Amino acid sequence: MSAPLLETRGLCRTFGALAAARDIDFRLEAGARHALIGPNGAGKTTFVNLLTGLIAPTSGQVLLKGRDITSVAQAARVKLGIARTFQINRLFRGLSVLDNVYLAVAERVGAASSMFRPAGLRRDVVEESMHVLETLKLAENARHRISELPYGRQRLVELAIALGLKPEVLLLDEPAAGVPSAESHIILDAVDGLPRHIGVLIIDHDMDLVFRFASQITVLVNGAVFASGGPREIGANPDVRAVYLGQAAHG
Amino acid sequence: MTSPSAGLTGHPAALAMASRHRLRLWEPVPWLLAIAVYFVFPRHLGFGTELLVTILFAISLDLVLGYAGIVTLGHAAFFGAGAYAVGMLAKHGVWNEPITGLIVAAVVAAAVGLGSGLVLLRTRGLTLLMLTLCTMALLEEAANLGHAYTGGFDGLDSLPIRPLFGVFEFNPLYPTTQYLYVLAVLFVCFVFVRTLVYSPFGQSLTGIRENTLRMHAVGAPVRARLVVCYTISAAIAGIAGGIWAQANAYVNLGTLGLDRAATVLIILVLGGAGRLYGAFVGAVAYMALSHFLAKVYPTAWQLGLGLLLVVIALFARNGILGLVENLRCRRAGVAGR
Description:
heterodimer; A: about 250 residues; alpha/beta; six-stranded mixed sheet; 10 strands; about 25% strand; globular; B: about 325 residues; mainly alpha; ABC transporter involved in vitamin B12 uptake, BtuC; disordered N terminus
């Protein structure tokens, strides 16, 4: 069997006495639509941070297509095809929406180190950025500065930047949190519209969204994998219902 | 995703971006004014030369502070490195041709920028600020101690700078050559910096300033890019220092001092950082104001400047140009630079 797209082996991370990730073995297959759920403080974001290299694990390994990338820096992992969105917006707030996506696309196509050509004349980069914005129904906001946009639209820019990187692994940390329900379908539609071979990991608290979206669900509790399986399996698992679904309104 | 649909480059946002770097109608104005000064105030060209050098120095600072968001208090380190490179080479009879001298000044300052940048750009915020200050203090002390080469506390004077192109003398009393020479160098450097800030590289510097963490997350080699920016900026500051030494025919410890570093910072903040022309507006405002205040209150003129700075920091975070932009935006009813 070939190696999974993204894999972790015995991944641990402690913050002082707190074990935010305990011995996590996890596989994200190519083409997977995988959801990561768990109560607040379960270590979901920490796990994403470990996958992207934002923080280093205390022990354990991260592998991309079988290659150990545990010691690869964050920016280099992006070049290898791992992109993410942030739970709390991390945008270039003083810049326009188009500029925000431009920065990501320029970085990916290797235009960002060019010094002597006006940025706006890199038509390939501009065009592709605009295309991403159009997919997310953001084209009309392209000229607006981030700080002028309502929060829900800002969340879409968060996703647009990640899509501009054309990742193979896309990690979405609560992409729909704070997005008005009228617009949250834009996010799901965009994710649905991605090429099939991309592996997507989504963290979300909205169980409707999770169960509709995911073909695979991993439940994280206290930093450890509590259960893993298909949506039916997880939905029917009494332990999961007790620790997590019981607390949510849905399920 | 499907292939990009045609016609997206015709979108207003794309068009706006494609014309962002174009020359604005008012952009020749400062240059025309500078040329006008040459004819209208021939007796004030010494002051004018000083002003132009200050603008050049402030532009170099704008690149790191205004665009890349590197907070530094030690930018005079590079000004001084350039000035001493020119001064020492000329005084010790090694090299005194002005234009190549500036290239040497740029290279020396760039080397200092690269060396220190590799170390200190690993840090951020207050640590970075202190380290830039330390770098400058170390250089200043080295210049102070290295008597035999640097002239120590007295500096080096009566530098024998060769005439420009072998023809135009640098006359300290009638600095017409200096003024035009500095203006030409300023123009070349400005065109370079302007090109740089509108390039994708310049964009990415702005990205680093706006959100360093996100730049890492889009795969940008953040530190390498900051080091490159810091080195380029150092080279330009070195040119400013070198040309100052040539124009004045001396170098002293003041070129490396906190006083100079702080002044250029104030100038940039006053004019508006990250705006290219903030350096021009700030330098003119600062020098005109200090000139005026020094006449009115010879003993306490810095108090007036201090008060002005407080007002700017409280009410006009983006300096004079920021105020102008706000007014224009309000009139146009839209936001955006």
